């Protein structure tokens, strides 16, 4: 079946407006009414409390995130800043005004259908990149108004080594988020996990290099299917570290697509954490001072040479195209086209090629269709 990709931010899931506003609200939340990108084909996850849900009380939007310190949540910037529309154009799209951090409610609970059984923390501060361009900078950090209990595990940002270090990082991820299980918006508001999702391409990787295209930035990477609407801001957890119960986050979910019939979410583009070491370390040090605790050990990780990130898009630097992804591009909406390879394709290289090829071949149009 031919695939059409609808360019849209994976993140947002519109839910019923919450009443009241305090750290542990007891008001009921209406069922999800309309969504835009949940872990499809995944299992309900009641254990991984480091993967959090984020509710914006002002916009009634649901996103996902990850606890990287007792009072610090990593997520996508489009979950906390204004955007003009959801159909992404990397050449022109920028972030607008940051939202009031106090309107962001964060929970470690696995289910959000009823706030009477969920407790929430409120946002206190926002940390975002100085560059307002959407593509390649879709990452943000929320400082909470209080620290989570010591019993809640934390996640470590993978900033010690570049993502291209295949000897250290697996070539698959675990995705955990609160989104829907299909573009129709079913199943949103429950934390789900899907493991062993293949990484399709990484700019600068010797074997999994991405095709040349100005819709993918050097500070991003692409995975196969698994995430959907409402998962925006959720982390890509290195599968090897997740299996060892010391999860590393490789990046945050920025955007993805759906197939022509809008019955399945396909592909995902993540913003890499290794491109934003200074942002994350600075936020963590400030949050530690506010929370009066010792900064996490990863904040003292020495920086590696990340000068190759300069230039923004993968056309502007050398060595980004791997021999296994020599043709095609991402679609003009900036969303990954594909990620779901034909069953006969069991080679990751072919998967990376499909993400590029399916879209250019059909010159597919983008759409603002809300999921």
TrEMBL record:
Gene3D superfamilies: Trypsin-like serine proteases. It holds the Pfam family Trypsin. Its EC number is 3.4.21.-. The keyword Oxidoreductase applies. Residues 39-285 form the Peptidase S1 domain. PROSITE patterns: PROKAR_LIPOPROTEIN, TRYPSIN_DOM. The keyword Hydrolase applies. SMART domains: Tryp_SPc. SUPFAM superfamilies: Trypsin-like serine proteases (SSF50494). Residues 1-19 form the signal peptide. This is Trypsin-like serine protease. It comes from Pendulispora albinea.
């Amino acid at each position: 079946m031919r695939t059409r990709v609808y360019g849209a931010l994976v993140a947002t899931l519109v839910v019923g407006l919450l009443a009241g506003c305090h750290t542990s609200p007891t008001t009921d939340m209406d069922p999800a009414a309309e969504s835009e990108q949940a872990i499809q084909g995944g299992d309900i996850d009641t254990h991984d409390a480091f993967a959090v849900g984020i509710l914006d009380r002002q916009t009634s939007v649901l996103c996902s995130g990850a606890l990287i310190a007792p009072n610090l949540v990593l997520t996508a910037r489009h979950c906390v800043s204004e955007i003009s529309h959801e159909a992404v154009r990397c050449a022109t799209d920028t972030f607008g005004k940051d939202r009031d951090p106090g309107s962001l409610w964060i929970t470690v609970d696995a289910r959000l259908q009823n706030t009477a059984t969920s407790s929430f923390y409120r946002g206190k501060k926002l940390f975002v990149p100085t560059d307002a361009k959407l593509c390649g900078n879709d990452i943000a950090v929320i400082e909470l108004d209080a620290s989570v209990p010591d019993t809640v595990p934390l996640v470590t940002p993978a900033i010690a080594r570049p993502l291209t270090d295949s000897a250290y990082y697996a070539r698959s991820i675990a995705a955990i988020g609160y989104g829907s299980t299909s573009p129709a918006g079913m199943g949103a508001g429950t934390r789900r996990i899907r493991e062993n999702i293949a990484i399709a391409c990484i700019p600068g990787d010797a074997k999994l290099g991405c095709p040349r295209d100005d819709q993918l930035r050097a500070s991003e990477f692409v995975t196969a299917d698994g995430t959907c609407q409402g998962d925006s801001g959720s982390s890509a957890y290195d599968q090897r570290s997740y299996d060892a119960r010391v999860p590393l986050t490789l990046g945050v979910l920025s955007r993805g697509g759906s197939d022509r019939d809008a019955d399945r979410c396909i592909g995902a583009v993540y913003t890499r954490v290794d491109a934003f070491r200074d942002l994350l370390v600075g936020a963590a040090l400030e949050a530690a001072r506010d929370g009066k605790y010792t900064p996490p050990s990863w904040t003292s990780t020495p920086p590696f040479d990340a000068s190759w990130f300069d230039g923004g898009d993968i056309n502007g630097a050398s060595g980004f195209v791997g021999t296994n992804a020599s043709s095609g591009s991402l679609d003009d909406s900036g969303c990954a086209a594909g990620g779901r390879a034909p069953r006969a394709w069991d080679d990751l290289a072919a998967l990376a090629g499909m993400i590029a090829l399916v879209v250019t071949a059909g010159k597919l149009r983008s759409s603002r269709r809300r999921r």
